[in-house]
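can u do me a favor
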């Protein structure tokens, strides 16, 4: 791994580490201060705080397969670490780091939360209306996908503009390096 690759890998690791720390701290605060029966409104009925435990994936899908979801989560974390080591731009590293941090945050719950090792339920506390309840790991996953999507869109637009004008992208631009 060269110096630039190491720098991008470090960016991804720092982003992931911050997400995991914030996610686990907010889950601990939710466990100590929130109830499953009462919702605390933050933005009227749109957003509130309410404790929930999710044995499944998004929208509780696969709730009967918690152990399998844990294995898939661990596999995803491994693939994301490899992707972080191969990140070609700083923004790509940030996006991968956010997704990695969100995945690690939820895998920690699956490994160490009740009802048992490897089949734990994910602690959720951000109530989005009556749609679903999530956590900050989920927010980081979504933010990482947005960062990656915007990065790809910008790269595509710049590559198309360069192809139209016949010029090659400048070294150090978003397309080739940072």
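np, heres the sequence
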């Amino acid at each position: 791994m060269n110096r630039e690759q190491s720098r991008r890998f470090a960016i991804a690791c720092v982003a992931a580490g911050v997400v995991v720390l914030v996610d686990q701290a907010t889950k601990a605060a939710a466990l100590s201060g929130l109830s499953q029966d009462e919702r605390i409104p933050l933005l009227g009925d749109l957003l509130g705080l309410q404790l929930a435990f999710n044995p499944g994936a998004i929208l509780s899908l696969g709730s009967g397969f918690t152990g399998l979801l844990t294995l898939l989560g661990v596999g995803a974390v491994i693939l994301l670490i490899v992707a972080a080591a191969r990140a070609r731009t700083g923004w790509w590293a940030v996006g991968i780091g956010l997704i990695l941090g969100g995945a690690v945050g939820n895998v920690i719950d699956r490994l160490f939360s009740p009802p048992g090792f490897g089949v734990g339920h994910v602690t959720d506390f951000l109530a989005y209306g009556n749609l679903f309840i999530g956590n900050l790991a989920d927010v980081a996953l979504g933010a990482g996908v947005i960062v990656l999507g915007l990065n790809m869109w910008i790269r595509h637009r710049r590559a198309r503009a360069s192809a139209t004008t016949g010029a090659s992208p400048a070294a150090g631009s978003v397309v080739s390096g940072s």
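The longest strand covers residues 47-54. hope that helps!!
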